[in-house]
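Q: Sequence in, structure out?
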Amino acid sequence: ISNDANAAAKIADQRANAEKKARDLIVERAEAERKIAELREKAVNKDKFTAQERIKCLEEAGRVSDELAAKEVEVAKLRLEAKQTENALTKSNKEDLNEAAQLEANVIQLE
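A: Exactly. Output:
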């Protein structure tokens, strides 16, 4: 019983960690998308910015986008890891296996 309780606690902790990061990412994604849009707007404004400044804006937009993508991959991997742990410790049914496969596909798509 102790092992089962420890396993259940581990799964709960993994899920809670993944969900907390996912919630944090909602706000981060909105802020990042706003910043990317602002930078792209500057990049097309030939009247106010030099070519070099516009290039820097595009590079910064790319960096922000890459950081956001990395965080999304991290959350997807945490969710997958939690589901895989759960499936390994319990009798997995078809729905559990399908969910794990979908989570794995999500990680692949984000990478």
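Residues 28 and 67 are 10 Å apart (CA to CA).
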